[in-house]
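Section: Multi-chain targets

For targets with more than one molecule, the full set of components is provided together so that the structure can be written out for the assembly as a whole rather than chain by chain. Components appear in the order listed by the source. The example entry contains two components.
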Amino acid sequence: MKKLLLTGLLLSFTLTAFALTPLSIRQNAVTLDGKYVNVYGELIGEPLYEGDGVWLNLVCEGTALAIFVNDLGLLEEVEYWGSYDVKGDIISVSGVFYKHCDIHNDEGLHAEVLDIVKRGYVVDHKVPEYKIKIMIYFFIICLTLVALYFIKGIFIKLKKSVYERSIRQNK
Amino acid sequence: MIISPDRKDIATILNHLGQLVLGLAGFMFIPLCVAVMRKEINPLIDFTIGVLFAIAVGAFLILAFPAKRPVSWIHSFFTVSFGWMLFSLIGAVPLFLSGHFASFIDAWFEAMSGFATTGLTLANDLDHMSYAHNMWRHLTMFIGGQGIILASLSIITKAKAAVIGFYIGEGRDERILPNVIATSRFIWKVSFFYMLLGITVYTGILLYKGLYIERAVYHAIWLFFASFDTGGFAPQSQNIAYYHSFLLESATAVFMILGAMNFNLHFWIWTKKKTELFKNFEIKTFLFTFFILLCLIYIPLKNMAISEMFRKGFYQLISAHTGCGFANIDSFEIMGFPALSLISLIFAMMIGGAVCSTTGAIKLMRVGIIFKTFLMEIKRWMMPASAVYNDTFHHLQDISLSNDKIKSAYLYTGMFVTVYILGAIIGMFYGYDPLMALFESVSATANVGLSVGITQPSMPVGMKILYIFQMWAGRLEFLSIFVSIGLILSWAKK
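Its structure, encoded as tokens over all components, is:
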């Protein structure tokens, strides 16, 4: 009975995925190679097709991790992919991490389970007031400089014509 | 007698800088148009501010400092040295306003990295950057790769006689055609041809990977700027690894090599003899150094699968040797390379591409000449004392290995190596590992852009300024900067 409990405990421990960030996976790539892990982060860009699966890119705290999804059904729930005006869905992915997968010739996590942790949204970029003010100030400065440029041109022309007239009069 | 500039010279230089800054304002209209097309309001305002700021600075310099002398060598060197600095400072304005940079220094670093075609980045949250800002980041590489001053001058200048000074000041020491304006226009023509080809190929691959057409075209344009101009920026934080495409990596490798080739050789192959490709001294030097370094990289990686070896060794070496800096693996992996592989990459970065190309670093011609000098000396020792022996090399024609050429090769190599090492020593003072500090210092000075993780927003301000200086000095090959400093000192002495 004791042996059975111990085996069960060990089995449940090995099957339980570690909740990690892409950064911690990157930093411990050698140790985690071939291990079943759980990672979370924001989906960015788009699915990139390869063979009968797709690559996803997951970003968290400025570091990205590639996820390979063979079962496209896992992506049915995904709605938002991060970009300039979209905050991507935050997902949690469990699967085996390969430092180098011989099939895809790439580093990445082979997804087995994919859950949406937080739904993404369309980002409303508000224009800060200070930017409008700076733009108006520079616009006024530019107008002034352009006006000065033309005034200077007119002034030089006038000066030239006065000089030429005086030469003609002296002749 | 040393020439010392006077007030009239300074006014002439500032006036020309003003004209060039107006040219930069013109370039900023491109991302501004992207912002309009993509309906990106915030970036639209950022670039409107950028354009207005550039116009204000340019117009002020032109108005306040009328040109009082025809352009001469002194003016050219000053304009080139300060032009790149001023361009990067003004070019940093819209980047800073984007909110993706922690400070103005970070934005300045990014702009200098772009103009110098380095590719080291300090951008935060790159994956959420707007199309307009990404267009500007990549466009800076194209402008810088073609030569900022030449880019403006070949289009707008009237002072044709003085352009040779700008041309040499930007670290290009070969003319393709007798007239420098014609030379720069040829460079543009070649670039536009490859641009069309590159964008078509990249778009095709990206469409195949699943990007929608508009996004594929934008990414293709940016990747072309980054590969052909050996810049190394990419629109996503994972750099080229984002796309997970062996095809794209192979295509970028081809364009990196094309960008690192001498424009003179392009001209020769296009218009004269195709066989020159197989005889050319720089190409032979490239193949020789590449093969040796590839062997050195692979010795410690010998247990890897062949496919893995390509991605981790071959591609990184091409990227380092051509000075592009595209990375299909992250900085943690590069950092984890065995020391011998890292040293090989450092040597590849130190050497760089051909003269009169878009790359930085010592350059193949000079390295080749140094090799030849060694061989020549050995042969001389083996000959009778009375024998007169002089070697030649083939670069478009047979060229005698004169003392001037040897002196120049050693001088430039010495300057580059000094700056590589000084940068590494300063990095070590900041607490970085010596090999890592040397890697990053060489990457910045040689305008490569591969990183072992030192370059990041949290690095000390002193290191950011050091790398800005290294990128600037390395891009201009020190000459115009040292001449300008000398002239300033002689002016101060008066």
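Residues 153 and 159 of chain A are 10 Å apart (CA to CA).
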